[in-house]
Design brief:
18 helices; alpha/beta; nine-stranded mixed sheet
Length: 697
C-alpha cells in the first residue's frame, strides 16, 4: 500500500478474470480513500508552468539588462527601449557604408534563436532593432544580428557551435585556431599619411609606419564593412583602454568570430553595466574582417593581408588575417599616438608594485621575459605589456594579459599556468584528443602559442591597475651574442641610449618567417608599435625618470658563456634573484666595476647568483676552477660528458669573447646612426650625452 498525498491510496485487487490478476498476469491497481491513520509519501512536485519545450527552455535563462535609467528618461521600461535604440543606432552608424551613406538594419540577438524574422518596432521585443532611413542595397533587405558584449559563457557557446577548431580544454580554457596567420604581419600594416600625420609621425628608414593614402583606406574599409554586413551576425564589443579614469579611451570592436570577441573581452577593460549605458560614440573603432582578404589589385597592397590605421577617422581595418594579436597591437599603436598629445608617455612594458608601493617598469620585446618577470607572486601585478606614465603615476592600458605558452609549466610559471582556466583563450595549442590536456611543448601548429586571460585571473593583480611613479626602470635584452652581463646599473644617458636602441634577439615564432633567434634592434623596445620618432618618447622618459628619481637597469635574459648555439641561456632563477635585489634596493648598495667597450657598471656580488657569471669576461677563467671544487660532480660524469659541459657553459677563449663584444658594439653604433642627428630636448646637450653613453672602442 502506498499513498499519493491526496486522500487516496493504492491497492492490488482482483480483475475481471476473478483470480486477482489482469489478463497479462500482472496485479491490477485500484485506488481507495486514504485511511485516517495512513502514512503517505509524495515524491512528486508541482508540474512546470510551461506548455511547450521552447517555453520551458525560456524559463531556464533569466533576462539580464542594466536597470539604471538613462538621464532624463521617465520610467525604467522606456529607459531600456531608449537605451537599446541608441546603442543600435550607434552600431549601425559604425557599420555604415560611406558610398551609400547608411548602415545596415541591425537587431540584437542570435539569429539561430527562434523568433520573428522581421522584428517590429511598435512593441517591446527581446530583439531590439534599428532600421536606417535610407535603404538602397541588398544588405538593407535583411537584418544583421548584433551579438553585443556577450559574456565568456555565451561566446564559448558561439565558438564551439559555429567555429571549427574550437574546443574546451581540461583546464576550462577555450582552445582556438587563428588560421593561416599565427603571428603578426608587420609588413602588411599601413597608416594613412595625410597633412597632419605627414608632420607628426615617424616616416622613413627604421620606421614601422608604412604609408597609404586616404582613398585606399576607404576602399579597404568599404570591403570590410560590406563583408561584415553580409553576415547573419556580427560580434560587437564596447570597451575601454587605460585604467586612468582621467585618460580613458572608448573602443568598439566589430568582428565576425566569437574567438575575436572573447579575446578582446579579455584584453580590453571590461565596462560595468552603468558605464555601458553612457558609452555613446566610441573614440576608436576596429573593423575585423580577417576571414576576408583584401584585393591585391588595390593600390599599396602587396598580399592578401592588410592592417590599416586611419588616425583622422579613428578607425582600423583588418583584412586577410585572423591572428587576434593584430587588434591588440593596433590599439597599442593608437595609444602611442593619442597619449603623447596629452603629455602622457605610452610604454611597451610590464609593471608591478611591491607591498611598500615601490613600482618597477619592465621593458622588453616578446620572449625577453617581460610577462614572466612582471608576474611575481610576491608583488602586485599592475600589467604585463602596455602602460602609461602620467602626472598621476602609472596605469595599465589593458584589462588582460597575453602570455607566450611555449614550454609553459606549473612549476616554472604557476601564476600564468593557473590563469589559463574558464574564460581564457588559448591560441594554436595542441591538446590530447580524449582528455583535452594541453601539451605546451608541442609546436605542431606554431611556436607562437599564446594565452589571453583577464588580469584578475592573476591572484595578486592590483585592481584598479594603477600605481605611483616608478622607482626602477628595467630594460630587458635577450642577448644572442652572450657578451652582455646578466645585470648592469645605468646612468640616465645610458638608459636613454639603450632605450632608444632596444637591443634584443627576435625570438622564434613572434613574427612570421622567424624560426631562430636573430639579433635585432627595436627602438623603445617596441618599434613595431610606436608612431612618433623614438627620441620623442626617450625625452619624455628621461624627464620623468629625472623628476621622480627612478634608477635604470639593463638585465640580460639571453645567453652567457657563448653566443646562441654554443652558450647557455641564463637560468630563470638567477634572473629572478637579480630582479629581487633590484626591488629590495640591495643592489644599489653593491660594489660595481666597469666593463670595457660598453662601459656598463656591473655588481661584483648578487645574493643567490654565482659571482662567476656576473662578468661575461670571467666565464672563460672562472668556470674550470669552479667545477674542480666539486669532485662528486665529476664522479658521475664520463670524460666525454665533461667536455660537453665545458662547451655549453664557457667561451672557447678570451679572444673570441672580445671579438664578439666588439662586433656587438659595432652593431649598436651602426644602428644608432639614424638617431644621431635628432635633437632631444631644448638643446643638443642631452643628445651629446646619450651618444657618449654608447660603446667606446
Amino acid at each position: 500500500m502506498a499513498g499519493n498525498g491526496n486522500g487516496a491510496e493504492f491497492s492490488f485487487v482482483g480483475t475481471a478474470n476473478g483470480n486477482g490478476t489482469a489478463r497479462n498476469g500482472l496485479a491490477k491497481i485500484q485506488t481507495h480513500e486514504k485511511k485516517p491513520n495512513g502514512i503517505c509519501h509524495d515524491d512528486t512536485a508541482a508540474p512546470v508552468k510551461a506548455q511547450t519545450l521552447d517555453q520551458l527552455h525560456s524559463f531556464q535563462k533569466k533576462k539580464s539588462a542594466p536597470t539604471t535609467p538613462i538621464k532624463g528618461s521617465q520610467g525604467a521600461l522606456f529607459a531600456e527601449e531608449d537605451r537599446s535604440k541608441q546603442q543600435l543606432q550607434s552600431i549601425s552608424a559604425s557599420l555604415a557604408s560611406l558610398t551609400r551613406e547608411t548602415g545596415p538594419r541591425v537587431v540584437k540577438g542570435d539569429p539561430a534563436k527562434k523568433g520573428p524574422e522581421t522584428p517590429k518596432a511598435s512593441h517591446v521585443s527581446h530583439h531590439h532593432h534599428f532600421t536606417p532611413t535610407l535603404s538602397i542595397s541588398d544588405s538593407a533587405l535583411k537584418f544583421t544580428h548584433i551579438l553585443y558584449n556577450l559574456s565568456p559563457a555565451e561566446l564559448y557557446e558561439q565558438a564551439i557551435k559555429y567555429e571549427h577548431g574550437s574546443f574546451i580544454t581540461s583546464s576550462g580554457a577555450l582552445a582556438t585556431l587563428s588560421g593561416a596567420k599565427t603571428g603578426r604581419s608587420p609588413r602588411d600594416k599601413r597608416v594613412v599619411k595625410d597633412e597632419t600625420t605627414e608632420d607628426e609621425l615617424w616616416w622613413g628608414k627604421g620606421s614601422p609606419n608604412i604609408e597609404m593614402d586616404e582613398h585606399t583606406f576607404l576602399v579597404n574599409r568599404e570591403r570590410a564593412v560590406d563583408y561584415l554586413n553580409s553576415l547573419d551576425k556580427v560580434f560587437v564589443n564596447d570597451q575601454f583602454l587605460n585604467w586612468d579614469p582621467e585618460n580613458k579611451i572608448k573602443v568598439r570592436i566589430v568582428s565576425a568570430r566569437a574567438y575575436h570577441s572573447l579575446f578582446m573581452h579579455n584584453m580590453c577593460i571590461r565596462p560595468t553595466p552603468e558605464e555601458l549605458e553612457d558609452f555613446g560614440t566610441p573614440d576608436f573603432t576596429i573593423y575585423n574582417a580577417g576571414q576576408f582578404p583584401c584585393n591585391r589589385y588595390t593600390h599599396y597592397m602587396t598580399s592578401s593581408t592588410s592592417i590599416d590605421l586611419n588616425l583622422a577617422r579613428r578607425e582600423m581595418v583588418i583584412l586577410g588575417t585572423q591572428y587576434a594579436g593584430e587588434m591588440k597591437k593596433g590599439l597599442f599603436s593608437v595609444m602611442h599616438y593619442l597619449m603623447p598629445k596629452r603629455q602622457i608617455l605610452s610604454l611597451h612594458s610590464g609593471c608591478n608594485m611591491g607591498k611598500d608601493g615601490d613600482v618597477a617598469l619592465f621593458f622588453g620585446l616578446s620572449g625577453t621575459g617581460k610577462t614572466t618577470l612582471s608576474t611575481d607572486h610576491n608583488r602586485y601585478l599592475i600589467g604585463d605589456d602596455e602602460h602609461c606614465w602620467s602626472e598621476n603615476g602609472v596605469s595599465n592600458i589593458e584589462g588582460g594579459c597575453y602570455a607566450k605558452c611555449i614550454d609553459l609549466s606549473g612549476e616554472k610559471e604557476p601564476d600564468i599556468f593557473n590563469a589559463i582556466k574558464f574564460g581564457a583563450v588559448l591560441e594554436n595549442v595542441v591538446f590530447d584528443e580524449h582528455n583535452r590536456e594541453v601539451d605546451y611543448t608541442d609546436k605542431s601548429v606554431t611556436e607562437n602559442t599564446r594565452a589571453a586571460y583577464p588580469i584578475e585571473y592573476i591572484p595578486n593583480a592590483k585592481i584598479p591597475c594603477v600605481g605611483p611613479h616608478p622607482k626602477n626602470v628595467i630594460l630587458l635584452a635577450c642577448d644572442a651574442f652572450g657578451v652582455l652581463p646578466p645585470v648592469s646599473k645605468l646612468n640616465l644617458a645610458q638608459t636613454m641610449y639603450h632605450f632608444i636602441s632596444g637591443y634584443t634577439a627576435l625570438v622564434a615564432g613572434t613574427e612570421e618567417g622567424i624560426k631562430e633567434p636573430q639579433a635585432t634592434f627595436s627602438a623603445c623596445f617596441g618599434a613595431a608599435f610606436i608612431m612618433l620618432h623614438p627620441t620623442k618618447y626617450a625625452a619624455m622618459l628621461a624627464e620623468k625618470m629625472q623628476k621622480h628619481g627612478a634608477t635604470g637597469w639593463l638585465v640580460n635574459t639571453g645567453w652567457s658563456g657563448g653566443s646562441y648555439g654554443s652558450g647557455n641561456r641564463i637560468r630563470l632563477p638567477y634572473t629572478r634573484k637579480i630582479i629581487d635585489a633590484i626591488h629590495s634596493g640591495s643592489l644599489l648598495n653593491a660594489k660595481f666595476k666597469k666593463t670595457e667597450v660598453f662601459g656598463l657598471e656591473i655588481p661584483t656580488e648578487v645574493e643567490g647568483v654565482p659571482s662567476e657569471i656576473l662578468d661575461p669576461m670571467n666565464t672563460v677563467r672562472a668556470v674550470l676552477p669552479l667545477l674542480f671544487q666539486t669532485p662528486k660532480f665529476f664522479v658521475k660524469l664520463t670524460m666525454c660528458t665533461f667536455f660537453i659541459v665545458l662547451l655549453k657553459i664557457q667561451w672557447s677563449d678570451k679572444d673570441a669573447y672580445k671579438e664578439t663584444l666588439l662586433k656587438l658594439g659595432g652593431l649598436f653604433r651602426k644602428n644608432f646612426d639614424v638617431f644621431a642627428s635628432y635633437k632631444i630636448g631644448k638643446d643638443s646637450k642631452l643628445t651629446e650625452e646619450i651618444l657618449a653613453a654608447g660603446p667606446v672602442f
